[in-house]
Amino acid sequence: MSQMPELEVTTLPADAVEVGRIADAWGIKGWFKVISYSSDAEVLLTAKNWYLLPAEKGAKHFTGTVLLPVKQARTHSDSIVATAAAVGDRNAAETLRGARIFVSRTAFPAADEGEFYWVDLLGLSVVNREGVAMGVVKDLLATGPQTTLVLAYDEGGKERERMIPFVDAYVDKVDLAGKSILVDWQLDY
């Protein structure tokens, strides 16, 4: 029978971002395989504290939020494997299957100049060069070689969507502190 590791019950940080989930046990010494939600899994490899929420489907071996202090995480083939002091064997690792992994936004590595984490763009107001409000970023889509901003705006009491490619040709400036994006785009595009 699988024994749930002793993990500290905690509160999910207000700035927590879901970055992956635990796929399954890996090996016999308590390692587990992780599925990253990003092609760049650096935050999973560097963050020392993961916050876990139970699997959305399947068996749930815990409720609420638990803190998983990660001892080591590394890439292995096309995935990530990790271990924690509280997870001593394969049986304990199996109880974490499906758990959703969150990391505090403060644990993310700094983005390079001109690069942004998607999570930081959500909620920003988008205005064009003429000062016309285009909407608020509600989502981003990876559309092949580029990312597209999905904006929500109100039209006659109904929420509508507008899409703008997130490329230098159309995006003049991203002001994270000012919570805005300046674009070269028109309402009728």
Strand and helix map with partners:
Blueprint: E1 8-10, E2 16-26, E3 31-36, H1 42-46, E4 49-53, E5 65-76, E6 79-84, H2 90-94, E7 100-104, H3 118-121, E8 125-128, E9 133-143, E10 146-155, E11 158-165, E12 171-175, E13 180-183
Parallel strand pairs: 8-13
Antiparallel strand pairs: 1-5, 2-3, 2-7, 3-6, 4-5, 4-7, 5-6, 8-9, 9-10, 10-11, 12-13
Helix count equals 3
Distance between the termini: 60 Å
Rg from C-alpha positions? Answer: 20 Å
Element order, helices and strands? EEEHEEEHEHEEEEEE
The total strand number stands at: 13
Mean of residue pLDDT values: 91
Low-confidence segments, given as residue ranges, are none
- Tally of domains: 2
Instruction: Bin the helical content.
Output: under 10%
CATH architecture of the largest domain: Beta Barrel
Shape: elongated
Tell me the fraction of residues in β-strands, as a range: over 45%
The named CATH superfamily of the largest domain: RimM
CATH topology of the largest domain: Elongation Factor Tu (Ef-tu), domain 3
Q: How would you classify the helix and strand content by structural class?
A: mainly beta
Largest pleated sheet:
6 strands, antiparallel, barrel
CATH class of the largest domain: Mainly Beta
Largest beta sheet: strand ordering: 2-3-6-5-4-7
Describe this structure in words.
The protein is mainly β and 189 residues long. The chain has two domains: 8-107, Beta Barrel (Elongation Factor Tu (Ef-tu), domain 3), CATH 2.40.30.60; 118-183, Roll (SH3 type barrels), CATH 2.30.30. 7% of the residues lie in helices and 48% in strands. It has a six-stranded antiparallel beta barrel with strand order 2-3-6-5-4-7. A six-stranded mixed beta sheet has the order 11-10-9-8-13-12, with no helix packed on it. The longest helix is centred in the first third of the chain and has 5 residues, at 42-46. 24% of the residues are buried. The model has no long low-confidence stretch (mean pLDDT 91).
